[in-house]
Design goal:
Layout lengths: L2 H10 L4 E8 L11 E8 L2 H13 L8
Antiparallel strand pairs: 1-2
């Protein structure tokens, strides 16, 4: 199991979080361009955000906030 796959599994177990893998970023940019990201994590609360960042950091995954 890859680090991304394992991280996605861990994140998907958290409440109030949406996890997408290989998500094209074109739908999230003003110019409608952008390739896929390994993980797109959308937390619905500050608590979910904190838990997600803890997992991502613990697994050595870089975090970019948009």
């Amino acid at each position: 199991m890859t680090a991304i796959t394992e991280t996605a599994r861990q994140l998907s177990e958290l409440p109030d979080i949406t996890v997408l893998t290989d998500e094209p970023m074109a739908g999230y940019t003003s110019f409608g361009i952008g390739g896929p990201v390994d993980l797109l994590v959308t937390p619905a609360s500050i608590k979910a955000l904190a838990a997600a960042v803890k997992i991502l950091n613990g697994n050595g995954i870089k975090v970019c906030y948009i």
